[in-house]
Amino acid sequence: MSAPGAATGTPRPTGLHLDRQARQLSVTFDDGASFDLPAELLRVESPSAEVQGHGPDEKVLVAGKRNVGFIDIEPVGRYAVRLIFDDGHDTGLFTWEILYRLGRHREAIFEAYLKALEEHGLSRDPG
């Protein structure tokens, strides 16, 4: 049996560090890539059905998460982690592939998020 990520060519993490104070997850991969992923980005891009829906056109725009933080991180097998956010969200499984994609395209993903918030008259701030 091959290692998770081997079939897709996705690099595997060599380090994960959850910084609760800075509200970010730092991930390093075996290809040398290293990413600092803010809790807000991870929360609004959660791979959970609550955020992504059950189909390609069902993604929910999550607002008010500028100050969201982490409570914990839990390994899920050898292929993912579950992030537990301080707003109670804990259902998304962040596979290595998802974390790598979010890290690699962080700026574009976040810019698209900000644009969508603006278009819908929503804010990053709670309330």
Automatic annotation (TrEMBL):
A Pfam family it matches: GBBH-like_N
Keyword Iron: yes
Domain Gamma-butyrobetaine hydroxylase-like N-terminal: 17-100
Source domain of life: Bacteria
Keyword annotations: Iron, Metal-binding
UniProt KW Coiled coil keyword: no
GO molecular function: metal ion binding
Protein name: DUF971 family protein
Lineage of the organism: Bacteria, Pseudomonadati, Pseudomonadota, Alphaproteobacteria, Rhodospirillales
